[in-house]
Amino acid sequence: MARPMGPVRLKRTNPVTLVLGAALCIFILYFVIGSSAPDFSPSRKATAASHHLSPPTSPFRKPASGSKPKPPPVAHYNLNNVTITPNPLENRENILILTPMARFYQEYWDNLLKLSYPHELITLGFILPKTKEGNLATTQLQKQIAKTQKTGPEKDRFKSIIILRQDFDPPLASQDESERHKMQNQKVRRAAMAKARNSLLFSTLGPSTSWVLWLDADVVETPPTLIQDLAKHDKPVIAPNCFQRFYNPETKAMDERPYDYNNWQDSPTAQEMAQHMDPDDILLEGYAEMATYRALMAKMAKPDGLLHEEVPLDGVGGAALLVKADVHRDGAMFPPFAFYHLIETEGFAKMAKRLGWQPVGLPNYKVYHYNE
């Protein structure tokens, strides 16, 4: 016969266990609710953008609950007050230097630091590809930026620096000079370059920018007064002549030779060739297979010529190019497609001319390209 059970006694819970359980519950609730709610703490609000058009581009944050909300900021810019004059230094005009970069050259950066235009008026903009080589160039660039902006002399520090990474793959696996300049690679290569230039331009051109200086990453030597020298011509688009220094084995001494053949004056032969091309075909300069007989500024340099002699141009290169910001604001960009059978910088020159802006070149004013 079964014996009746006595009353059941529950084991008394340890108070420490209850405290730990309650603390755990509170932590879980805080984590779930706190992670989804906006953070309006003073430290967090300090990183929010004080102005919606100024970096860093953090979101504009509403004030904490309970306080009276303020409207988001409204910026007013009168572009009529932005001067673009032959005396940018005297008028304290803002310069935007833009550089598409696949490789980093220390000589390029050293030359930038030598520019005599006040660095507090210069904004630098870079765009680099998302490749192994582009990653290396970005690392090297950021190292020099940190050195200049954080520990370098005050006079060397720039107003601001913007780095973009391309959101498309480069068409060429190699950036070697021999590979870049093969004729069969030119259309896809220059279309990609045009896209990179446009991305860089549209992301960095600000309402206070007066001049845009396009300077290739492999241009390693320019006069320190490059910006002032080009601006004083007061031309909407102006290009110096790009040469390259090299050791001449015939003379056994250092010499120089023309490099950029994209600064040119059009010819009847080139115009005739264009009339018989398909709409998507482009004319290229500097190739024997496509003799255009254009007048090349690279061949116009004279040892005894006037330094600031001007010649009108129908096509321009991008090695070094000073552009009034109003030309870009009017819509002149770098076509990544055949535009009157021209592409990239040469297409830009054509577009500028169609908008009423005449490009000009300086045959005897030289900048120098890196010699690989």
Query: What is the percentage of strand-forming residues?
Result: 15-25%
Q: Structural class, judged by helices and strands?
A: alpha/beta
Count of beta strands: 12
Give the CATH superfamily: Spore Coat Polysaccharide Biosynthesis Protein SpsA, Chain A
Describe the biggest sheet? 10 strands, mixed
Classified by CATH, the class is Alpha Beta
Helical content band? 25-40%
Number of helical stretches of at least 4 residues? 10
Distance between the termini: 105 Å
* Total tally of structural domains: 1
CATH fold node name: Spore Coat Polysaccharide Biosynthesis Protein SpsA, Chain A
- Element-level helix/strand string: HHEHEHEHHEEHEEEHEEEHHE
Low-confidence stretches: 32-57
Shape: elongated
CATH architecture name: Alpha-Beta Complex
Computed Rg: 29 Å
Mean pLDDT: 86
Indicate the topology:
Layout lengths: L14 H22 L5 H4 L48 E7 L5 H9 L7 E7 L3 H20 L8 E6 L11 H4 L5 H19 L4 E7 L3 E3 L4 H6 L5 E12 L4 E6 L5 E2 L2 H8 L19 E2 L14 E2 L7 E5 H5 L14 H11 L4 E11 L3
Parallel strand pairs: 1-2, 1-4, 2-3, 6-12
Antiparallel strand pairs: 4-11, 5-12, 6-7, 6-11, 8-9, 10-12
Structure description:
There is one protein chain. This protein is an alpha/beta fold and about 375 residues long. The chain has one domain (about 80-370): Spore Coat Polysaccharide Biosynthesis Protein SpsA, Chain A (Alpha-Beta Complex), CATH 3.90.550. It has helices at about 15-35, 40-45, 105-115, 130-150, 175-180, 185-205, 225-230, 270-275, 325-330, 345-355; strands at about 95-100, 120-130, 160-165, 210-215, 220, 235-250, 255-260, 265, 295, 310, 320-325, 360-370. The strands form two sheets. Strands 1, 2, 3, 4, 5, 6, 7, 10, 11 and 12 form a ten-stranded mixed beta sheet that branches. It has a two-stranded antiparallel ribbon with strand order 8-9. A hairpin with a 4-residue loop joins β6 (about 235-250) and β7 (about 255-260). The longest helix has 22 residues, at about 15-35. The protein is elongated. The chain starts with 14 loop residues before the first helix and ends with a strand. Mean pLDDT is about 85; it is low at about 30-55. It is found in: Golgi apparatus membrane. Belongs to the ANP1/MMN9/VAN1 family. Its main location: Golgi.
